[in-house]
Write a structure and sequence with these properties.
The protein is α/β, with parallel strands linked by helices and about 250 residues long. The protein has eleven helices and eight strands. Helices cover about 40% and strands about 15% of the residues.
């Protein structure tokens, strides 16, 4: 039996997902990755639709287990919290995938919650980058369900970095490092009381910026892309590299 850690990524529909190729670069050990995108090419990305994809998530998790993966990592924050009535409700989705696959499963937004708790964070600022208002408000509600004090929540439009009528499909898959940097700095400036800055949106890539930005804002950043890597490494007892910023020491 192959002993090399093998991680399976369930990727969001109709999106080129950097996670399967990026994750091996953040750990010291040699790992393998597999990918099973949700096969929904015409997916409308309404929260109501996201809340109904549990059968597809389960199928992907089972497929990755059949490929020999030892752990499944689901990419994309709202797949756990869209339509959830509580944290327990969200964790049931993760548990359902794990039960059917027979291997551990990590969902992005639950990794965010676990990362914040590992830090001991109580008061958080929420930087929703390219999210629209409904998504921003829904994720803020979920964080409050998980007993966090959200002192600030904003999007690129709220921060004046994009026009107010910008839609997610206009910018969500085309985030730049410069826009990501400016957005995180704006959220940090608006929330001096926050213990940590939460960054949502899997299209917002923070790996190359994380350590530098944390040194500038003097607080940890819990971002959807990199906190998922932290959760995977913790579960499989892998060693994170320094590029992972404060997550490396958790």
């Amino acid at each position: 039996m192959n002993k090399t850690p093998t991680i399976g990524f369930v990727s969001a529909p109709a999106w080129f997902d950097p996670a399967p190729s990026e994750f091996p670069t953040v750990v010291e050990e040699y790992v393998r990755t597999q990918q099973a995108p949700l096969l929904l090419p015409d997916f409308d990305y309404r929260l109501e639709s996201i809340a109904l994809v549990q059968p597809e998530l389960n199928h992907c998790a089972r497929s990755l287990a059949a490929m020999g993966c030892q752990l499944v990592a689901q990419v994309g924050s709202p797949f756990a919290w869209a339509g959830a009535l509580s944290e327990a409700d969200a964790r049931k989705r993760c548990d359902a995938m794990a039960t059917l696959a027979g291997i551990p499963v990590i969902m992005t937004s639950l990794a965010i919650i676990d990362g914040l708790r590992a830090l001991g964070a109580k008061t958080v600022a929420l930087n929703c980058t390219y999210y629209e208002r409904e998504w921003r408000d829904s994720f803020e509600t979920f964080l409050k369900m998980c007993i966090f004090d959200v002192c600030h929540a904003s999007t690129l439009a709220d921060q004046g970095l994009v026009p107010p009528d910008t839609r997610m499909e206009d910018i969500g898959w085309a985030m730049t490092d410069d826009l990501t940097r400016r957005s995180i700095l704006a959220a940090a400036k608006a929330s001096p009381e926050a213990d940590a800055i939460v960054v949502t949106g899997a299209g917002t890539r923070t790996l190359s910026l994380l350590a530098d930005l944390e040194s500038r804002i003097h607080r940890p950043i819990i971002a959807a892309d990199t906190v998922l890597y932290w959760a995977i490494a913790r579960s499989l007892h892998l060693t994170l590299k320094p590029a992972m910023g404060s997550l490396e020491t958790l």
